[in-house]
């Protein structure tokens, strides 16, 4: 367990160092598989909106831990814009993910300030969002 946590932290750190400052694709399996390996303290983000619900239950899953935000796509949605806003509406993270090739997105969030955040997912087919707190 400790080794998995250290590997996850290292991968998150590497994600921070990449030019894209984007998502780390460490797993190509759907989130329901990845969720069984989530770090201790994982909290689910309840997503609302047509993108999250029209494709069926659990088509997109999201959650947080102390150091990252996780998003899993259990089916293909093509390119999806992922944005995270702080409680005052300021954009703190943005990327585009091709869900045809990347099903799990890990966004390093260690250096983010404590507070409330909103994660937004959107593409040509719809929109979804959910809020979470960072301690």
CATH fold-level topology = Immunoglobulin-like
Instruction: Tell me the count of domains.
Output: 1
Strand content: 35-45%
Strand order of the largest sheet: 1-2-3-6
- CATH architect. name: Sandwich
Q: How far apart are the termini?
A: 22 Å
Shape: globular
User: Which structural class best describes the helix and strand composition?
Assistant: alpha+beta
Question: Could you characterize the architecture of this molecule?
Answer:
- The chain has one domain (2-134): Immunoglobulin-like, CATH 2.60.40.
- The protein is built from 3 helices and 8 strands, in the order ααβαβββββββ.
- Helix content is 18%, strand content 39%.
- The protein starts with a helix and ends with a strand.
- The strands form 2 sheets. The chain has a 4-stranded antiparallel β-sheet.
- It has helices at residues 2-17, 31-34, 50-53, and strands at 43-45, 60-64, 68-73, 79-86, 91-98, 104-108, 115-123, 126-134.
- Residues 1-31 have low confidence and may be disordered.
- It is an alpha+beta fold and 135 residues long.
- Strand 2 (60-64) and strand 3 (68-73) form a beta hairpin.
Write the layout of secondary structure elements.
Layout: H1 2-17, H2 31-34, E1 43-45, H3 50-53, E2 60-64, E3 68-73, E4 79-86, E5 91-98, E6 104-108, E7 115-123, E8 126-134
Antiparallel strand pairs: 1-2, 2-3, 3-6, 4-5, 4-7, 7-8
Short description:
The chain has 135 residues and is of the alpha+beta class. The chain has helices spanning 2-17, 31-34, 50-53; strands at residues 43-45, 60-64, 68-73, 79-86, 91-98, 104-108, 115-123, 126-134.
